[in-house]
Amino acid sequence: MLFLVTLTYIRLVEEVHAHLSTHRDWLDKYATNGQILVAGPLQSGDGGLLLAHCEDRSELDALLEKDPFHIQQLVKYDIQAMTPALRAWDFPMAWAREARVAARSPLDI
Q1: What span, in angstroms and rounded, lies between the C-alpha atoms of 72 and 2?
Q2: How far apart are CA 84 and CA 77, in angstroms?
Q3: CA-CA-CA-CA torsion sign (92, 49, 59, 71)
Q4: Using CA atoms, how far apart are residues 72 and 11, in angstroms rounded to an integer?
Q5: CA angle at residue 55 from 49 to 59, to 5 degrees?
Q6: How many beta carbons lie within 10 A of that of residue 30, not counting itself?
Q7: Where are the beta strands (DSSP E) in 10-102?
Q8: Domains detected in the chain
Q9: Alpha-carbon distance 13 to 81, whole Å?
Q10: Element (H, E) at 97
Q11: Does residue 2 contact residue 52 with C-beta atoms inside 8 Å?
């Protein structure tokens, strides 16, 4: 299952930035093991976004509980779950096993 997680800062940006390096270490750890697929700050500067791949919500919750931003009570999370039904031809199958694959190019249709 894929999870879109929006992080919204609930403390001053200076407090958030004080924990940014440990948050990035946490992101690196879970990106390395394949649970966090992509992450980054929002252009608005008031939070971030990450795409996670977990078996279920309890696995995601366990992962988020280890986030230094969560531990320091710096963010709130908005979580949306989805089961992929369609994927681009080059989107990894491991993250969307049941999804139908879109044509690679108009010539493949």
Answers
A1: 25
A2: 21
A3: positive
A4: 10
A5: 70
A6: 20
A7: 36-41, 47-53, 75-82, 86-87, 100-101
A8: 2-108 (3.30.70.1060)
A9: 27
A10: none
A11: yes
Tens-of-pLDDT digits for all 109 residues of the chain?
Answer: 999 999 999 999 999 999 999 999 999 999 999 999 999 999 999 999 999 999 999 999 999 999 999 999 999 999 999 999 998 888 888 888 888 888 776 665 5
For residues 10 and 75, what is the distance between their CA atoms, to the nearest angstrom?
A: 5
Dig out the tokens for 23 from the structure: 């948050």
What are residue 49's phi and psi, to 5 degrees? Answer: -140, 140
3-state DSSP call for residue 90?
coil
Q: How far apart are CA 76 and CA 69, in angstroms?
A: 9
DSSP letter (8 states) at residue 33 = T
Phi-psi region of 26 (alpha: psi -120 to 50; beta: other; left: phi over 0): alpha
* Token code pair at residue 62: 């366990």
For the whole prediction, is pTM greater than 0.85?
Answer: yes
